[in-house]
Amino acid sequence: MAAGVSSLVFWTLSAAIFLNLVAYLVALLRVTMWNPYKLHRIMRQRGYGGPPLSWTMHNRDEAAEIFLHSRTVLKPIFGTVDHNIRHRVLPHYFEWSRRYGRRFVCSPRKASQCMLWAGTEAEVIREVLVNSKTGFFGKSQTSSSDALLGRGGLVLVTDFHEWSRQRRVVRPIFYAGKVKETGSIMMEVAKPWLAGLAKKVEENGAWTEVEMVQEIGMVTKDILSRAAFGSDYLQGRKGFDGQQKLKVLEFAHGGANALLRRLPTKINKEIRKTRELVTKTLTEIIQERRRSVESGQRTSYGDDLLGVILTDGEAHNANSKNTTKCTDEQLVDQCRTFFFAGHDTVQVSIAWTLVLLAHYPEWQDRIRQEVFDVLGHEDVELHAGTKLHKFNLLHQFVYETMRLYPPVPQIIRQVVKDGATLLGEPVPKSLDILIEPLSVHRNPEYWGADAEEFKPERFAKGISHACSHPYAYIPFGAGPRICVAQNQAMAEVLLITVLFLMKFRFKLSPSYKHSPIHCIVLEPSSGVQLLLQKL
Ligand code: HEM
């Protein structure tokens, strides 16, 4: 009898495991093969071209081949700068757009079933990012950056009500008045950093070589940690290091979809482990804030980013009308979003600005002169944060830097409802639409024949006069999901640049290799080596 029961249990369990496995395989095949096939077939029937799909229903191999080819054929450029970078940064999209025209379909990433590339068209940006009130276009529900940004955080969240709640909660943090407050934190962090750098240059003599990406990284991380989380860089360091590692892993992974992520592969395990480390660091920061309130050290959670997120979470949970509760996991996701979105973008913006100031010494001199004209030579640091709006030339220079080197070179949306149309043509649900700031910023249709040239003066009369289409310039995105922190981000880029210009004259080192790479943000893959001379 006992043997019969245990045999029944054994077969029932085996059957359950077998059925689960079959269900998983069917789901995997549906997501990775059937859905892409179906979407591609629809789009091809509507006349869209694109690279032929392999039997695995992707173009990953071809994309990798073009990428590797571009790495071997294109020699790195040492000690100077060539702005013609599309074929280096996004070589497969560049090549396919030459072959298949201004709109084509492809599947170069594991997470995307079918992607419509519409990189250069401002009208697509208007329809997809700006006029999406009807809710046809949304954030991808199968985004590949969950591990990095957190599915429940503001950047990726798909549910409209949850998004508007989170956006409403954090928006006051980034109002102009608050940005001024953050300005003093920026100053507090930047001053000792610059003093340390100046000491190093003094000790080593004029034209000391310094790798600036690391240097800027320390400053921007410290500013974000203090301004947003009330901690310093050292406390958040493990979190930042983990995020950095996750970014590289995600990039290497080609953005796998949720089902592929469950497979016990080495890279999946590594991603999971690193994500847990970031979660642990963020949880500790959250718990420390809670403890400080419980112990009476603080009277409230505070009005920095972490404070408003925690206060809102608690208010949400206390409201009996809300049946779903805001969990710690969601709070961590919200913080995770800002840890990444608020750091790497600013770091690379400052890095590219310094590269170009070093490459164009006449602009460097003119802007430095402007800085001293506006601030005078005394008490300059006191005024720098409040007078940023007066730096006209610097604004032009940074706008132009973000035009040719947009920190976020690609933006993706998904068709999330049946019945959507794009430029008058029907588009199927689940289709991804790829918009490229990197390409639309260089489209001669909007920018003129000199679109690939670096000419800050095109912004002399402001952004709206620099190009012929209102959505041809989108370094911070566009529409309702435009960067919530763009004022603060710009202030940080301008302020750090001003302070740096006031302390140093600088030029590119011969060892600087101009090789921008797309690793979620557009970053200088070999660092930024500058030669510094103290003023
Ligand atoms: C120069 C620096 C920055 C650039 C170029 C930048 C760029 C962008 C872009 C292009 C988007 C839109 C993405 C999309 O439409 O899918 C975005 C969204 C966002 N950014 Fe930034 N960003 C910068 C700095 C920051 C900072 C400092 C923070 C926070 C401290 C931040 C937080 C966010 C958030 C939360 C979103 C999502 C907004 C939403 O979906 O409602 N960003 N950013």
UniProtKB/TrEMBL annotation:
Organism listed in the record: Marchantia polymorpha subsp. ruderalis
Pfam families reported for this sequence: p450
Protein name in the entry: Cytochrome P450
Keywords: Heme, Iron, Membrane, Metal-binding, Monooxygenase, Oxidoreductase, Transmembrane, Transmembrane helix
Annotated family: Belongs to the cytochrome P450 family.
Domain of life per record: Eukaryota
Binding site for heme: 483
Cellular component GO terms, alphabetical: membrane
Primary location: membrane
Cofactor: heme
Location within or outside the cell: Membrane
GO terms assigned for molecular function: heme binding; iron ion binding; monooxygenase activity; oxidoreductase activity, acting on paired donors, with incorporation or reduction of molecular oxygen
